Amino acid sequence: MRVFKGGELKATKIFIVFCIAVFILQQLYPNSAFYFGLNLYFFKNLYLWQPLSSMFMHGNLMHLAMNMAVLYQFGSLLERNLGTKNFTKLFIIGGFLTGILSVLFLYIFNLNHLLVGASGAISVLIGLVARHDVFNRKGLIIAILLISFAPLMLGVNIAWYAHLFGFIIGWFWKIK
What we know:
This protein is mainly alpha-helical. The protein has one domain (10-172): Rhomboid-like fold (Up-down Bundle), CATH 1.20.1540. The protein has nine helices and no strands. The protein has helices spanning 10-28, 32-36, 41-44, 50-53, 61-82, 84-108, 119-132, 137-153, 160-172. Helix 5 (61-82) runs parallel beside helix 7 and helix 6 (84-108) packs across helix 9 (160-172).
């Protein structure tokens, strides 16, 4: 993977703007997270859109800001190298698969959690970079583990499993 290849960042910027717009809408409609966030209504009420819609929602402003900073960092790198079309497929399909695995995790362990955020899809990006960038691999693996487990040690409840599922999906993603 080349470090830099020219090109615009259309999809990365669109995803960031969309996440910000969805966050603003969430503030106007506080209960929307139960309808569009990922939870067991996926099974109970067949809310089949949740694995996709949940990745554009965020729990609070800090959650949004951190995810958008990391999305810009890794999205910029990957969109330039993969092209907009392949990057968009990676982010959407990878994020959707991460959501499916996460909701199955909730179901299997009978957890009634509400999952929101782009971090699962972003973890797909990190996993892909880690697999192909041998020089930065160890640092990225440490980073995903810290992002996943350090907040838990501080008492912050996060969907650590979504980060790990996303990273694994990115690791095994085939680049055409």
